[in-house]
Amino acid sequence: MFCIDARVMRSIEFKDGKVRFINVRKLPHTLEIVETTDYRRVAIAIKNMEIRGAPAIGVAAAFTLALAAYHSRCRDVECMLSELERVAALVRSTRPTAVNLFWAVSRVLSKARASAGGVEEVRRAVVGEALRMAEEDVEVNRRMSIIGASLIEDGDVILTHCNTGMLATVDIGTALGVIIRAYQEGKKIFVYATETRPALQGARLTAWELKRAGVPFKLIVDSAVGLVMARKGVTKVFVGADRILRDGHVINKIGTYQIAVLAREHGAEFYAVAPTSTIDLESRVEDVVIEERDQREVLEVMGVRIAPQGVEAYNPVFDITPPSYVSGIVTENGIARPPYEESIPKIALGKQ
């Protein structure tokens, strides 16, 4: 492990049989770059949220399979495919809610199965597809930043939740990428970023990214959102998404739902920003698994217990925002607007 300036690398990279990624759990105090040849280490990083954010998780999942293929000792295709299936099962078990993870695993496995030839061809196919997905993520986020920034006007006061910048993607970011792009275009904006309990992604990561970008902002506690909406003139909310259903339900970091309700009450527009790979056209809202994490994340802050011994906590890390509260969904293919059951499938298939 070693530390460098994050500006000289992406949040996650694959090169010469190694994966390098920024361990976001150490920010903002330490910028730690982890380098590994072990696919298990990347899977652990996904599970432990050293790598987080739906797009970054998807690419990390692809890179996990790429590491396994690159270093595999299999001598025949059947062995290689069997090994990749085992690694895929490990990756799928890490984070049940983020649809990008499952999309990435399925895409890489499909490419491996379609490869005609020997072990080396399968290896090249898997690594090549993973690298292609990383490049696509950068381009998709660039396009979303341009499209989303068009929604932002001079004087906008923007609220954002969790972390959706380059640390949550390969580079640029989703919702935070939109905000930073608008600022770089010269638009006069002010941002309020929620701390985002319990893992404090807003306080640790979004604040770090906004500060580096020079965007005017203030950090607020999650429970201040209502007052800030009422007193500070918030005009727009931009958040990311870990899954978007075809009817417009947005599954995102816990706390998003209540922000959307408050935005409606105070006349602020509410936008989700996510690549089409985050869209789930098959699942019903009642089928969505909401991940629950270790209750110690609530009972402790940065490893220091704040609740009395013997107290238990409920720690869901996502919630579901109904489509009636969503003004629009920004993707690389354009902006989906109500009625979502018509616009989202078209957007997902690139037909709008």
The gist of it:
The protein contains eleven helices and 16 strands. It is of the alpha/beta class and 352 residues long.
Uncertain stretches of 5 or more adjacent residues: 1-7
What is the overall shape? Answer: globular
Could you name the CATH homologous superfamily of the largest domain?
Answer: Translation initiation factor eif-2b, domain 2
Helix content: 40-55%
Oligomer: single chain
Radius of gyration: 20 Å
Question: How far do the termini sit from each other?
Answer: 45 Å
Q: Strand order, main sheet: write it out.
A: 6-5-4-7-10-15-16
CATH class of the largest domain: Alpha Beta
| Number of strand segments | 16
Strand content: 15-25%
Identify the CATH architecture of the largest domain. Answer: 3-Layer(aba) Sandwich
When the domains are counted, the total is 2
Structural class, from secondary structure content?
Answer: alpha/beta
Which SSEs are present, and which pair or pack?
Blueprint: E1 12-15, E2 18-22, E3 33-36, H1 39-47, H2 54-70, H3 77-92, H4 99-114, H5 119-149, E4 157-160, H6 175-184, E5 190-194, H7 201-213, E6 217-220, H8 225-231, E7 236-239, E8 243-245, E9 250-253, H9 256-265, E10 269-273, E11 279-280, H10 296-299, E12 300-301, E13 304-305, E14 318-321, E15 328-331, E16 334-336, H11 340-348
Helix pairs in contact: 1-2, 2-3, 2-4, 2-5, 3-4, 4-5, 5-6
